[in-house]
Amino acid sequence: MSGAFTPVDIDAKIPNNVGLADDRRLQRALENWQPRFLQWWRDLGPVAFKENPVYLRTAVSVGRDGWANFDHVSMPEYRWGVFLADPEPDRTIAFGDHRGDAAWQEVPGEYRSDLRRLLVVQGDTEPASVEQQRHLCLTAPSLYDMRNLFQVNVEEGRHLWAMVYLLHRYFGRDGRDDADEMLERHSGDLDNPRILGAFNEQTPDWLSFYMFTYFTDRDGKYQLASLRESGFDPLSRTCDFMLKEEAHHMFVGATGVGRVVERTVQLMKDHDTDDISRYGGIDVDTLQKYINFHFSVSLDLFGAETSTNAANYFAAGLKGRFKEESRADDHLLHDLTRMVPEVVDDRITQREAPMLTALNETLREDYADDCVGGLNRWNRTLAEVGRELKLPHIGFNRAVGNFRDHHVSPDGRLLSDAEWNADVANWLPTAHDRAHVESLMAGVTEPGRIAGWLAPPSTGIHQQPVDYDYVRL
Ligand SMILES: [Fe+2]
Ligand SMILES: [Fe+2]
């Protein structure tokens, strides 16, 4: 029961710290799912370098230090395991109508279907991103970058394992069916797509990959952080550990875009022009359009501004707010309100909504604030050439929520269809922009060499040099 630290069984068929060996039925069920996962990986994981040794981080423990091991492994042999963060003794629920109760070690019957839904939606995003990114290894701008791509991919695979474990362990037959379906829906599949829109978009080039890991993996951080607050303790502990891995994914995005910006500025200075595309670079306007696109589709992932589901999840203690415990309110939210944006009579305005139903908006706002950090850093580099990148207005290019049926410019003006159509090519990547970015994508596989459209990384991985053979060819 709660409070017991389970040792890591690293040599098991499925490495784990959840005592799988003591639950033979569960162990058999997961060992049965394992070959199907591996088949999915072979079919829809990275299209090339399938057997090459890659310098990868593998989770081997959950403690504060030394939780991961770095070594060259070929990806099919990656040790995908099930790890929960150590339990917090006597943990209580921090919010909602069960505030102060002991955290649940089993699923409360009345919340079974809601919890199952939360696990399925989160779990579905993990393999989706692997599918979206499967062609990128062919055009990696360096071995360092290729290794980071594969690191992100194998860990998204492990995050799928994390959700599948919970489904198998706590949801019986239904959970096993859900786990099977995780491998049956596919990103972009017209008949059986992934659940969320952004996870059916393509990740066709490396600029998109860096933007995805910066903006969309950061959505993951916020979803996981609010699920870490869950009264369902196994989910809380699972998400806690996933967040550790997730940090590196956002690092890949932040430093990736940062290196593109660095190279862009260098080319602008060298050639004394903004139009650096003919010198093999990506100009600032194109970077801005990619930011506009990836930020707006990621905002959609948080759902509608007001949602009774979100209110119910909170009241039930299933999904909290970002950093719930550090918030200075009653954590019940029954009598509180907040403003949410909406469009009334051709005007963007705000209306007061119950805090409980507006929780999606609260999480989206926390997320958007967090996104600013990277832009501030990139803008320090861009200041050398007098340029700046900005996040677009929250209503720009939205397909979900109150802005869905409206056109909003990046600077927050409500537009007619004609006005939108006249300018959209200045705001979102055009076929021409994408073709240029794609034209720069050529795989670089010599250790230490970097493609010309981005700067080298400032340091290597895990104290290895930048020119280390991160992928052995
Ligand atoms: Fe993930
Ligand atoms: Fe991630």
Give an overview of the whole structure.
The radius of gyration is 23 Å and the shape is globular. The protein contains eleven helices and six strands. The chain has a single domain (20-440), classed as Ribonucleotide Reductase, subunit A, CATH 1.10.620.20. It has helices at residues 24-44, 112-132, 143-170, 172-182, 206-228, 233-271, 284-300, 308-315, 359-382, 417-427, 431-440; strands at 53-59, 68-74, 337-344, 347-354, 407-408, 414-415. Helix 5 (206-228) runs parallel beside helix 7. With 473 residues, the chain is mainly α. Helix content is 45%, strand content 7%. The strands form three sheets. Strands 1-2 form a two-stranded antiparallel ribbon. Bound molecules: fe (ii) ion (FE2) (2 copies). One fe (ii) ion (FE2) is lined by residues 156, 217, 220, 246, 249.
- State the helical fraction: 40-55%
User: Which architecture does the CATH hierarchy give at level 2?
Assistant: Orthogonal Bundle
Percent of residues in beta strands: 5-15%
Averaging pLDDT over every residue, what do you get? 96
- Counted up, domains total 1
- What is the CATH superfamily label? Ribonucleotide Reductase, subunit A
Shape category: globular
The Rg value, from CA coordinates, equals 23 Å
Low-confidence segments, given as residue ranges, are none
Catalogue the ligands.
Answer: fe (ii) ion
| Helical segment count | 11
In total, how many beta strands? Answer: 6
The ordered H/E elements are: HEEHHHHHHHEEHEEHH
CATH fold-level name: Ribonucleotide Reductase, subunit A
Q: For the terminal residues, how far apart are their CA atoms? A: 47 Å
The structural class is: mainly alpha
